[in-house]
């Protein structure tokens, strides 16, 4: 399995505002790059915080890229995955439509009524007692044949994936906006590290529009 975290941060390092509303940090060229990365992936992963904030669809937008996937014998869109301990994903969320298979990674905490409501819309994976055990959940995804994984956020999930040692690569677009706010989400939120900080090796720097795409490989821990 190869896990790529892709996100867009403002010049001051925020993924969105303190209102946790979706903000277009990427410009047209970067959104096209993100679309190509989605098209090259077997699954696109987000945390339930992103589903509740953004109601994302997480499909490939370019029809030519979807057609190419079909010609290659793959589904038109990659699978979608939500990390959602207690099954808070609304049943009318865009991510649960018929455009792609969706996996909901739950923990044992998820109430039976939520499981029953969601089972009609998604494949349910249970891993972990309270929060989702990411190592076990990702192992189950791999058993389903999902090898090329793209994670789109948000900051809580990205921190936990670094903590679990699951990230192989980080692609961060830094855009030309200042968002500010001490409570605005950043790339890696959660508890934060105080020692054993994950370290990165810079692989590429590309200018895109008025921003910069930084590609790092994550060192083994
Ligand atoms: N600019 C960008 O590229 C992007 C920006 N965003 C922005 O980020 C914000 C949302 O991010 P955020 O609030 O951090 O939410 P996340 O999308 O990171 O989801 C976090 C939630 O996932 C659930 N979860 C379950 N298991 C785990 C685990 N092991 N580790 C971490 N989380 C777990 C938790 O909810 P529970 O306990 O209920 O399971 C947790 O609160 C929005 O404002 C959105 O717009 C999002 C993506 C990309
Ligand atoms: N790459 C990128 N740049 C930005 O500026 C963004 N705001 C995001 N957000 C992510 O994209 C998801 C929306 O996907 P759909 O268009 O609905 O398919 C959103 O939920 C964030 O994960 N990404």
Automatic annotation (TrEMBL):
Entry keyword set: NADP, Oxidoreductase, Riboflavin biosynthesis
GO MF, one example: NADP binding
Presence of the UniProt keyword Cytoplasm in the record: no
Alphabetized InterPro entries for the sequence: DHFR-like_dom_sf, Rib_reduct_arc, RibD_C, RibDG_C, Riboflavin_Biosynth_HTPR
Keyword Transmembrane helix: no
Pathway assignment: Cofactor biosynthesis; riboflavin biosynthesis
EC number: 1.1.1.302
GO BP annotations, alphabetical order: riboflavin biosynthetic process
Catalytic activity: 2,5-diamino-6-(1-D-ribitylamino)pyrimidin-4(3H)-one 5'-phosphate + NADP(+) = 2,5-diamino-6-(1-D-ribosylamino)pyrimidin-4(3H)-one 5'-phosphate + NADPH + H(+); 2,5-diamino-6-(1-D-ribitylamino)pyrimidin-4(3H)-one 5'-phosphate + NAD(+) = 2,5-diamino-6-(1-D-ribosylamino)pyrimidin-4(3H)-one 5'-phosphate + NADH + H(+)
Boundaries of every Bacterial bifunctional deaminase-reductase C-terminal domain copy: 2-214
Subunit architecture: Homodimer.
Family: Belongs to the HTP reductase family.
Protein name: 2,5-diamino-6-(ribosylamino)-4(3H)-pyrimidinone 5'-phosphate reductase
Source organism per UniProt: Natrinema zhouii
């Amino acid at each position: 399995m190869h896990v790529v975290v892709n996100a867009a941060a403002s010049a001051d390092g925020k993924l969105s505002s303190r209102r946790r509303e979706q903000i277009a940090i990427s410009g047209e060229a970067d959104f096209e790059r993100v679309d190509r990365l989605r098209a090259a992936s077997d699954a696109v992963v987000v945390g339930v915080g992103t589903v509740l904030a953004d109601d994302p669809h997480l499909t490939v937008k370019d029809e030519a890229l979807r057609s190419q996937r079909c010609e290659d014998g793959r589904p038109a869109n990659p699978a979608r995955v939500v990390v959602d301990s207690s099954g808070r994903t609304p049943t009318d969320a865009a991510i649960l439509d018929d455009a792609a298979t969706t996996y909901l990674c739950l923990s044992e905490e998820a109430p039976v009524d939520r499981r029953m409501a969601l089972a009609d819309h998604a494949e349910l994976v249970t891993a972990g007692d309270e929060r989702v055990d990411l190592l076990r959940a990702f192992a189950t995804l791999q058993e389903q044949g999902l090898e090329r994984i793209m994670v789109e956020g948000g900051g809580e999930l990205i921190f936990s994936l670094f903590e679990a040692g699951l990230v192989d690569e980080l692609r961060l677009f830094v855009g030309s906006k200042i968002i500010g706010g001490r409570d605005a989400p950043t790339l890696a939120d959660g508890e934060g590290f105080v020692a054993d900080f994950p370290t990165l090796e810079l692989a590429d720097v590309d200018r895109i529009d008025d921003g910069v795409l930084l590609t790092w490989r994550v060192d083994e821990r």
